[in-house]
Amino acid sequence: MSAYAAIVWRELRRAWSTGGLALPLIFFLLVAILFPFAVGPDGKLLARIAPGVIWAAALLAALLPVERLVSPDLESGVLDQLAVRGIPDAGVAAAKVAGHWLGFAPALLVATVIASGLLQLPGAALGPLLLALLIGTPGLAALGVATAALVSGLRGAGALAGLVMLPFAVPLLIFGATADQPGALKLLGAVSLLLVAGCPFVAGAAVRMGRS
Amino acid sequence: MNALALRGVACLRGGRLLFEGLDLALAPGEAALVTGPNGVGKSSLIRIAAGLLAPAAGTVECTGDRALMAEAPALDSELPLAAALNFWAGLDGRREVVPDVLASLDLGPLAQVPVRMLSTGQRRRAALARVVASAAPIWLLDEPANGLDTASVALLEGLIAGHRAAGGIALVATHLPITLPDAREVAL
């Protein structure tokens, strides 16, 4: 167990020390700021599209650090060293999901409060939106790690990562942005759970395939 | 009892058969020196022995923990050397030995220097320090003498000898001369 905790802690430390924490947040806020400029200062319209904008921004912010999640560890031999110690690749991936989530989600929730002000989201809608992000971001983190493992070692991995990840994130986006509808939160939870449970195995298999 | 045994191992890389029918059994205190020209499969043999690469044929039996020194040092480049080694020593539950191991490899004064500032040879010694600190009975060293100066190669030979004297096993792939007394020679 302590081995997994050490990997999670290492992920967090690397996210903080390489600017991996601040960059996605600034990016997230910038996207939220761009929309009022693009759409115009119509409060009602902004309030209506706010959850969708915030979810799309969160999705892009989660995609941003994908290139540093698996690739550097593959090149520096860290994944091999963990495997030699008998830690399963899927377990390493699960720890990376936890580390990635801790690295961006809590700060993203705080930034959402700021973004909701910029988009004139009514106060009553902020609670459900934060709850939806809390439920959906673990799924985003898992998807990010699986994508990172799939494209690791490839040239132009960053652009490819978007193509691989974004289609799979559509269900999260649909149920997350309509969290005020009945049943949407449950479906969001189901999708997020499926991703969190399945993605570590996908990532582990991708890393194993990469060795041969 | 610790042992490493390869039976009838074949290695296929990119559609090319690098070697086949390789038999090697190492008991405690024994070492094998894998030699041969570039591209003959020395590194692949080490990775097969480490369990990272599946052999195309044959079996690998391993009793006891393995420690691998590959080409990549697997040390976080932004961390000070001692902290980077502490991550692995922490996984192995042996944080307390790191200062002694660093001293034994003449790396004591560099403990607080970030890994990215180290020279090639210093980085190789740091990777060796991770192997020594792990206390794994089976050492798998891929080109450990690369980038080392004469004094460091002597240090490396001394560490392997000490490891074998304590009942350890060493499988060493190298194209540079390393003196290992009574080592099995595997010429690929």
UniProtKB/TrEMBL annotation, chain A:
The keyword Cell membrane applies. It holds the Pfam family CcmB. The keyword Transmembrane applies. It is a multi-pass membrane protein. One of its GO terms (cellular component) is plasma membrane. Required for the export of heme to the periplasm for the biogenesis of c-type cytochromes. This is Heme exporter protein B.
Automatic annotation (TrEMBL), chain B:
InterPro entries: AAA+_ATPase, ABC_transporter-like_ATP-bd, ABC_transptr_haem_export_CcmA, P-loop_NTPase. GO terms for molecular function: ATP binding; ATP hydrolysis activity; transmembrane transporter activity. Keywords: ATP-binding, Cytochrome c-type biogenesis, Membrane, Nucleotide-binding, Translocase, Transport. GO terms for biological process: cytochrome complex assembly. The keyword Translocase applies. Residues 4-186 form the ABC transporter domain. The keyword Nucleotide-binding applies. PROSITE patterns: ABC_TRANSPORTER_2. SUPFAM superfamilies: P-loop containing nucleoside triphosphate hydrolases. Pfam families: ABC_tran. PANTHER family: ABC TRANSPORTER I FAMILY MEMBER 1 (PTHR43499). This is Heme exporter protein A.
